[in-house]
Amino acid sequence: MPSPTTQTSKDVLNNNFEVDYVIDYRFATTGKVEAEAKFIKLIKALHQVGLSTEVRNSDNCAVLIFVKVASDNHLKAEVYRSRVQDWLYGVRATAPEKELDNHLKQEPITDAERLRLVYMLITKPAEEGGAGITPKTGDWHGIESIFALHDHAFNKTWIKDLTSKTFLDAKDLTEIRNRFGEKIAFYFSFLQSYFMALTFPAIFGFSAWILLGSYSPIYAIVNAFWCIGFTEYWKKQETDLAVQWGVRGVSKIQRENPHFKHESLITDPITGENIKIYSPFKRLARQLLQIPFALATGIILGTLIATCFGIEIFITEVYNGPFKAYLAFLPTVILTVLMPTLSALLTDFASKLTDLENYETTDAREAAMVRKVFVLNFITSYMPIFLTAFVYIPFAQILVPHLDIFQLTVRPFAEDTKQMTTPKAGFKINPNRLKKQVIYFTVTAQVVGFALEVIAPYFKRQVFQKVKSVKANQAARRGGSAAPVTVDHPEESDFLTRVRTESELGIYDVSSDLREMVIQFGYLSLFSVVWPLTACSFLINNWIELRGDALKIAIETQRPVPWRADSIGPWIDALSFLTWLGSLTSAALVYLFSGEDGGPAGNPETIKGWGLLLAMFFSEHIYLLVRLGVKTALSKIDSPGLQKERSERFLVRKQYIEAAKGYDAAEAAAASGNGQGGKISRSTLEDEARNSTLTGHGTPAKRFWGRQRGQDDTISMGRQYISKAAPNETKKEK
Amino acid sequence: MPSPTTQTSKDVLNNNFEVDYVIDYRFATTGKVEAEAKFIKLIKALHQVGLSTEVRNSDNCAVLIFVKVASDNHLKAEVYRSRVQDWLYGVRATAPEKELDNHLKQEPITDAERLRLVYMLITKPAEEGGAGITPKTGDWHGIESIFALHDHAFNKTWIKDLTSKTFLDAKDLTEIRNRFGEKIAFYFSFLQSYFMALTFPAIFGFSAWILLGSYSPIYAIVNAFWCIGFTEYWKKQETDLAVQWGVRGVSKIQRENPHFKHESLITDPITGENIKIYSPFKRLARQLLQIPFALATGIILGTLIATCFGIEIFITEVYNGPFKAYLAFLPTVILTVLMPTLSALLTDFASKLTDLENYETTDAREAAMVRKVFVLNFITSYMPIFLTAFVYIPFAQILVPHLDIFQLTVRPFAEDTKQMTTPKAGFKINPNRLKKQVIYFTVTAQVVGFALEVIAPYFKRQVFQKVKSVKANQAARRGGSAAPVTVDHPEESDFLTRVRTESELGIYDVSSDLREMVIQFGYLSLFSVVWPLTACSFLINNWIELRGDALKIAIETQRPVPWRADSIGPWIDALSFLTWLGSLTSAALVYLFSGEDGGPAGNPETIKGWGLLLAMFFSEHIYLLVRLGVKTALSKIDSPGLQKERSERFLVRKQYIEAAKGYDAAEAAAASGNGQGGKISRSTLEDEARNSTLTGHGTPAKRFWGRQRGQDDTISMGRQYISKAAPNETKKEK
């Protein structure tokens, strides 16, 4: 029985019948003989690595295999091994204590640690001591998922607790870490820090909205400084949390990528370790494909967005015929239909590209994927506003007449061509368009996005259940049975129903939640100068977001595997990039739109190119300087994590020095040299001098060092020299 | 007797009578009684820490105290302690072996290590086990210098060896490291890498000079890429060398700054270690003084340079009276007189400012000083060219008429005011001025600088000897004696003469040599597009420079204390900064001066502001992108240093795992769980089941896990479920 850490967790473990993981094995599309053979193989593989199993029936051609660690000692040994490995790779500062039970009393096994290690036991390749089970691949094709069971009692109190407080404290975050692992805890920490930091721009933005209005240079500067401050603060905070949670540098050693293909296996001549080699140059060459990918993505999505943008402008501002109100929705419809399809296709392609880059660890693979996903999201999220601010408003008078090419979208409805032609003179841009768009993206889209996050999974579940029952019916028609085979034991019945429901849930993806927040930060950094209330909207949104995400984890998805992480990964680079870009866009927006006339109004001739560029140039370089300053200043300030690390290092040192008492010989020798120079050196040197006389005066060096025996000789000789050469004391020294 | 590492060093040690350090104690300005008291205190302090001493007379009211470590074991213990400390602070990957003599056989003590440790013994504060002797301060006011003796035999072969080869190899650099310490070895490595890297821009620059001429955008791009490549390569190389030499991170632990003043002394509650605290906020506040300092420096030196520049333009291009040829030297004279004085004053002020910032270690203090010195040198070195390129040539027609204010410099010589007035129309700028200036700074100034480096110390020595003899004569007049008091022992006479000469030599400052190279790199990065032959000049210059510096160390200066270092320090930031700035200046120079008309010729109206800014903007961002790419690519490539570190870590791991064989109990428990699941879990579970029967069926969890006993039960149960639910094999699987 795994040693439970707290009373609460004990109750719930009992509630869950001490089950660590459930393997959902499905055979609706597999023949009977094959299904049985694969099942036997699975059970044997699990027992091989010291796991106990129980099997229960599930609906629709599936069985549920319940897994727990067979013996408590086995779990303890796994924990110990993992902690020693952490220490060897420098993740932990101190080696775990050699007395195992003592050690576990000091650092109890958390839920997250136990679940992670059991999951590793199930999925690690055989040569590393695992069962090598990868769901949905190869022999394990029938395994739909491997999931841990929710701790419902904890989830209930957790959600209740979260909704009753405004800010999470360190204890709450540690609790999340102990339950759901560092990766999810990092997301919540980030969200929490971001939420707290948002209070400043929310208050300042509200004041600026009242006092300064839009496009205020003061707001832009303060906002940029806040962005720098927050980004740099989080970088520091991230490292600090990683140290406190004992996961610093863990991303380097975590999980080998199961799809990694090595070119050659070499044995290190020094260490004898087997190393899987994949040429870094080859990978670099493949990584270069990201550049054409980013360009292609930009062109494809950019064209789509620009086209819809053009059609919209054409219909709302040029077209003057019937159905105008309805036709205005046309671009939205096109976008809604095409964008998700294109995005999905491109994401899929990005994933293939990332696989081609062939990373050693899943963390490296994920980081590479995040970079590509960011490019995609960057284009879809910010491009419409970029088009309005830097194409439509400055160049509308030149470009709009060319929008006549979109006549074909309205031809069927127009009564005459005049309705579809730009007026020769007097076309006026819509000056509110930019602000409206920013408000749409920072308020409406956030609300819609949140609603989708919570409602979509519900429908998804419904659809999947339908699909599954169809599949099962097919199997039934081929001779199987769709109804449960045996009736559940009454004692287990509730439990099994719950497990069957959980088996149908989706998988929680922390990366997409992080992406959402980073993209949101981008609106603040890039465009909030247009509408200073942006941060207020985000502040409210994020309070709900955090609770919604907790609810999603607790109810909408399976309990996530508690992976470790030492940071929020490459999203931090995205934050830095957005802050940087913000220094450029904000300067440009302020330069273009501030002042009495409210912007170029579609006429590019009113813009002074060198002025715009100079504003951006200065803004960017001030940004870079301030960032350097903030970075330097923050690096000087101590933090609890760094203090912890230092003191741990010192303890190691102390232990070592105590263990090294054996050097007393060398130390004593040193001490003898350290003593009152006179007596000791005199006697030894006299011996040496006597020896040198015996062997014919020794070397010149021996004779040189033999002339003054010990410090007394040196002193008396020196005094002679000095008294002869030094000036008499004609004056007393002061 | 210290254990000599090689045969050569043994010979020379004998030659130097095994002397480690010589302390030059002077008392020309001290009274006899005080001089004797201080002398006695000095000798006692030295013996206290296990050093042997001999005293000999020197000229002009001075004695020379010869110091060596009293016992070989004492030295060994010091070496061992220092290496253990390195390991504890993470500088070494492996702990030194516990068997001392074995360990020293594997890693012999180098000359540099011995000299460093002895120097530390002499200078470390008493509470850290040293004699606490700081030359020229407090009680040690009479100590002029503490210096090691040159190994003349080695120096001779070294210089000979250097002059006979074009490139230094790794062995040469390791030799320098073993003799003069890592700090100087880093300088030579840098110089060597820079020299080798220069071959590319030298060849390319020569071709560009022939084929493309000045201001070629192609040259500018290639040059910028080379600068990025070299800077990033060196960063990697630097880390690699630090790992190979076992000094990575050494700058953090090296030497406490003797002038550090702590605010409070706190005892760490966890570690019990005494920590000297100085508030980082206070330091930060003081560091902010650097900004007004940089501004003031800019204004003071800038005004001086701009004034001389204005006078020069006025005399050479406006003034038309007698003595023009002689008056043209006036600004040079002003600069030559005022600049060194101002620079010295400002450097002194910078040094005071750095002391005020109150750093814990000498390395941190030095780094802070380097930053300030770079600002000074940046202004004095590049400002004249900046003025020509970006003020004189674009704006001359507007500015030159205002130069009439400099009439007073030539008034005594002019025959009438017409000679001193700008012609109303038709003033033509000197289009060759920029190129001439660049050639001056990159050829003439380099040659002059080198000559000064070699000749100046000679004169300095002459002057100092004069001063000293005057002082001694003063002392003599007060009753002392200037002539040597006793005649040297004939066996030592040559040796003592040599030591007396060495005691008069200057101290080698590696930082100023590095500065010279970094400033040189700046000309290449910032302005070489004006004159593509720049790199050729530097290539030739640096071949000589490296040998000249070696000669300087060997002959012109005292043997330097072999300090350690893990990099070239903040100079690397200076290189990055210059490369960055180069991307801006090169773009601006190319935009302004390329093309048929050869630049704006003094008329700013011919310049398109937005074009210039756009060129700079693009250039800078391409630079940043390329730098990111190069950095990423380089970080992917393995290097010998990193390999060494990895394999050392692995060995530690292996040792630990072997030492941890004591965990067999836990391992065995795990292994039992790992065995053939069936039998073992069956027996244990049967026991458990029996127990649960005895205690009334146990918990629900126990009953749940008891239903299927071992894998065979699970398998047979699962087969039942599957055979009932699964589809019949209507088709054979493929």
Automatic annotation (TrEMBL), chains A, B:
- Has the keyword Transmembrane helix been applied to this entry? yes
Domain Anoctamin transmembrane: start-end pairs:
176-648
Q: What is the protein's membrane topology class?
A: Multi-pass membrane protein
Anoctamin alpha-beta plait domain: residues covered: 18-141
Q: Name one GO molecular function term.
A: chloride channel activity
User: Keywords of this protein's UniProt record, alphabetized?
Assistant: Membrane, Transmembrane, Transmembrane helix
- Protein name per Swiss-Prot or TrEMBL: Plasma membrane stress response protein-like protein
